[in-house]
């Protein structure tokens, strides 16, 4: 009776040997976990915050690691410099390493101007309706009604915000405490401290750009920001801030002549910079005084060499500064370039009419929303003035036509 039992067990044992296989279920590769980063829901790219939540929303959730953000400076370099300080301040709070390069201001002076972070309970902006007071009369509420042609229109949501919070908020009226600022590791490149060295080989780049690129490469290799570096220690992000490239302070003549001698110097540097960032855990923000560069074709090449590009147009010193239509804003923001990363087609912003404002404590980007119209009385007055002005213009045109033959351009 024992033999049949033994023979019945042997096939099962053989089947168990054949079931052992090396097949493993394919799983999604594990992303690098670094504080202050998150993967993109669009293409899986690792993102960092620029420090400006509305700008993160505009860029598709944040700034992708390994990319370059180009900021075309406003005429007085006020708001572009502020965005750069937001970017560096976010790196300090997230314990990222910094690399700051400048030709005019010492990088230490830029770091001392970083805005102070705001506490979480103060920073979260939740749109909520104001509670109605019990003592408020009903007549005063009923009296505040808008025109009938606007009451059925949906309310315009001007703020650019995401459902999930990413990054921190900062108070531009205060500077960051030295204890917080000194806790972050910062690498500095101040051009006057790096004298030009004669090179035997002919290079399309200026000596200033060559020294800057060489210093960046040394920091990336020495501090272990290479993607191919060993994973023995915890990884971190290098935030690179390059201020006012292309200006005469860097020895570049792009903004000085219509036909500059070093025409391809900045483009060659950006080409090398982007190649360096693609193979490292680094992200860069570059500011360029585009309003001083006369060659628009060259400026287009500079824009295309960067992954993201925005332009700031300040109202300061222009007619729009006193225009009542723009009283709630300080300038316009134009999106020049959007990234094409891990996708066939990039995501374009929903709205192209964008403006920025500097509140008492915060810099924000909003959808440009102008008021519908002035009051009915003012409209009548303006129509009367237009009619009177048109009649006067017609009379003057007739008078000039009788006196002589003049060419009128419409």
Describe the structure.
The protein has 410 residues and is an alpha/beta fold. β9 (238-242), α9 and β10 (282-288) form a beta-alpha-beta unit. α8 packs parallel to α9. The strands form three sheets. Strands 8-5-9-10-4-11-12-13-14 form a nine-stranded mixed β-sheet, sandwiched between helices. A three-stranded antiparallel β-sheet has the order 1-2-3, with no helix packed on it. Strands 6-7 form a two-stranded antiparallel sheet. The longest helix is centred in the last third of the chain and has 28 residues, at 376-403. The radius of gyration is 30 Å and the shape is globular. It contains eleven helices and 14 strands. The N and C termini lie far apart (114 Å). The protein has helices at residues 2-19, 53-58, 79-93, 107-112, 120-123, 138-143, 178-182, 207-222, 265-278, 296-304, 376-403; strands at residues 37-39, 46-48, 63-64, 68-72, 97-102, 115-117, 170-175, 186-190, 238-242, 282-288, 308-314, 331-337, 354-358, 363-367.
Keywords:
alpha/beta, about 30% helix, three-stranded antiparallel beta sheet
- Please report the distance between the alpha carbons of the first and last residues: 114 Å
Biggest beta sheet attributes: 9 strands, mixed
State the order of secondary-structure elements, H for helix, E for strand: HEEHEEHEHEHHEHEHEHEHEEEEH
Mean pLDDT: 79
How many helices? The count is 11
Strand content: 15-25%
Write the layout of secondary structure elements.
Elements: H1 2-19, E1 37-39, E2 46-48, H2 53-58, E3 63-64, E4 68-72, H3 79-93, E5 97-102, H4 107-112, E6 115-117, H5 120-123, H6 138-143, E7 170-175, H7 178-182, E8 186-190, H8 207-222, E9 238-242, H9 265-278, E10 282-288, H10 296-304, E11 308-314, E12 331-337, E13 354-358, E14 363-367, H11 376-403
Parallel strand pairs: 4-10, 4-11, 5-8, 5-9, 9-10
Antiparallel strand pairs: 1-2, 2-3, 6-7, 11-12, 12-13, 13-14
């Amino acid at each position: 009776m024992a033999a049949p039992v033994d023979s019945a067990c042997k096939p099962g044992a053989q089947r168990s040997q054949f079931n052992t296989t090396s097949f493993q279920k394919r799983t999604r590769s594990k992303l690098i976990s670094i504080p202050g980063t998150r993967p993109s829901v669009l293409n899986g790219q690792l993102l960092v915050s620029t420090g400006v939540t509305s700008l993160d929303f505009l860029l598709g959730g944040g700034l992708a690691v390994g990319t370059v953000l180009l900021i075309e400076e406003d005429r007085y370099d006020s708001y572009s410099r502020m965005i750069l300080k937001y970017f560096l301040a976010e790196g300090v709070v997230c314990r990222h390493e910094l690399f700051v390069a400048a030709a005019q201001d010492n990088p230490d002076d830029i770091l001392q101007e970083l805005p102070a972070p705001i506490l979480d309970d103060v920073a979260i902006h939740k749109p909520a309706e104001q509670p109605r007071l019990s003592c408020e009369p009903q007549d005063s509420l009923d009296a505040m009604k808008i025109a009938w042609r606007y009451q059925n229109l949906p309310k315009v949501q001007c703020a650019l915000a995401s459902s999930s919070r990413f990054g921190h908020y900062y108070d531009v009226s205060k500077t960051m405490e030295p204890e917080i600022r000194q806790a972050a590791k910062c690498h500095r490149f101040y051009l006057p401290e790096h004298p030009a060295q004669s090179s035997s080989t002919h290079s399309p780049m200026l000596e200033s750009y060559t020294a800057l690129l060489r210093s960046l490469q040394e920091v990336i290799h020495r501090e272990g920001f290479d993607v191919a570096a060993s994973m023995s220690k915890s990884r971190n992000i290098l935030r690179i801030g390059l201020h006012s490239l292309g200006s005469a302070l860097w020895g570049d003549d792009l903004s000085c002549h219509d036909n500059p001698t070093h025409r391809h110097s900045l483009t060659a540097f950006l080409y090398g910079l982007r190649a360096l960032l693609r193979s490292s855990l680094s992200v860069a923000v570059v500011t360029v005084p585009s309003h001083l560069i006369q060659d628009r074709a060259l400026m287009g090449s500079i824009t295309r060499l960067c992954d993201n590009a925005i332009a700031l147009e300040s109202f300061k010193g222009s007619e729009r500064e006193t225009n009542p239509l723009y009283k709630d804003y300080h300038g316009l923001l134009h999106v020049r370039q959007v990234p094409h990363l891990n996708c066939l087609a990039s995501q374009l912003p929903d709205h192209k009419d964008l403006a920025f404002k500097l509140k008492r404590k915060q810099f924000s980007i909003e959808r440009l929303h102008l008021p519908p119209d002035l009051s009915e009385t003012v409209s009548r007055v303006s129509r009367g003035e237009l009619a009177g002005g048109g009649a006067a213009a017609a009379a003057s045109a007739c008078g000039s036509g009788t006196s002589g033959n003049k060419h009128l351009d419409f």
